Amino acid sequence: MAEKKLVIFDLDGTLSDSIHSIKYCTDRALEPLGMGPFSEEDYKYFVGDGAANLIKRALTAAGDVENVHFEEAFARYKELFAVDCMYEVKPYDGILELLEALKKRGVKLAVLSNKPHAETIRVIEYLFGKDVFDVLHGQIEGVPIKPDPTGAFRIMEQMRVTAEEVLYLGDTATDMKTGKGAGLFTIGALWGFRKREELEESHADAIIGHPMELLEYV
Q1: In this predicted model, what pLDDT tens digit does every residue of 17-29 receive, in sequence order?
Q2: Residue 167, exposed/middle/buried by CB under 10 A (0-12, 13-18, 19+)?
Q3: 189: which residues sit within 8 A by CB, 6+ positions away?
Q4: What pLDDT is stored for residue 1 in this prediction?
Q5: Residue 189 to residue 172: CA distance in whole angstroms
Q6: Residue closest to 30 by CA, chosen among 10, 56, 48
Q7: What does the pLDDT look like over 54-80, one tens digit per residue?
Q8: Smallest Cα–Cα separation from 209: which of 94, 79, 120?
Q9: Distances (CA, A) of 4 to 97, 189, 199
């Protein structure tokens, strides 16, 4: 394997344990419609493909299979999430140690998330500070969300690295498809929102149970 110069991280379910904030905001967005609440386990499968798809899946699960109330619920969710995106959010155990170890090795760090870009920046800077990551890339208007690999290509171009020099770490099939689409060595995180079977079925190149295990592939 080529020497790795960059690690691209998914955010929710990989760097940050954020399921509480997602549930908190979505349940409140649905409440005026007489829908919900849902469990955290439900939300682990609603998330992964951007906020719009999160709301669509929650509405469908609540019985609104035509998503008649999508515009209303999505608008309310965005208002609530802009205020409370940090509700009970914390880094997963071992993430801080991993980031420190990678930086000591001179490896660059990036985030690619389907979370809106402004909230991506806010969460990262709150949890990790402003100087840990070299590139932050959230959901940006005009750029397709994951699993489209465009965001990964944009990061690689900005950091001037080749696919062989990059690791991609995420916790869902969406992440594995994103990494594969960009030609990257893709690692599945078992501490996140989904189970091993999903990562295996989406052809992760490696699956790890603790963040520090990623160092074996650098």
Answers
A1: 999 999 999 999 9
A2: buried
A3: 10, 13, 14, 169, 170, 171, 208, 211
A4: 66
A5: 8
A6: 56
A7: 999 999 999 999 999 999 999 999 999
A8: 94
A9: 18, 18, 22
Residue with tokens 């001179």: 106
Residue 104 burial (CB < 10 Å; 0-12/13-18/19+)?
Answer: exposed
Q: What angle do CA 160, 165, 169 make, to 5 degrees?
A: 105
Six-digit token pair at 31?
């409440």
Q: What residue has token string 């649905």?
A: 30
Q: State both tokens at 40.
A: 């955290």
**21 contacts 87 by C-beta, under 8 angstroms:** yes
Distance CA 138, CA 105 (A): 26
| CA atoms of 92 and 122, how far apart (whole Å) | 17
Q: Which of 190, 183, 182 is nearest to 207 (CA)?
A: 190
Residue 84, token pair as written in the block: 């409370």
- C-alpha span between 47 and 24 (Å, rounded): 13
**φ, ψ for residue 82, nearest 5 deg:** -60, -30
The full 3-state SS of 162-184, as one line of letters, equals CHHHEEEEECCHHHHHHHHHCCC
Q: In whole angstroms, give the CA distance from residue 143 to residue 152.
A: 11
Element housing 185 (H / E): strand 185-189
Which amino acid is present at 179?
G
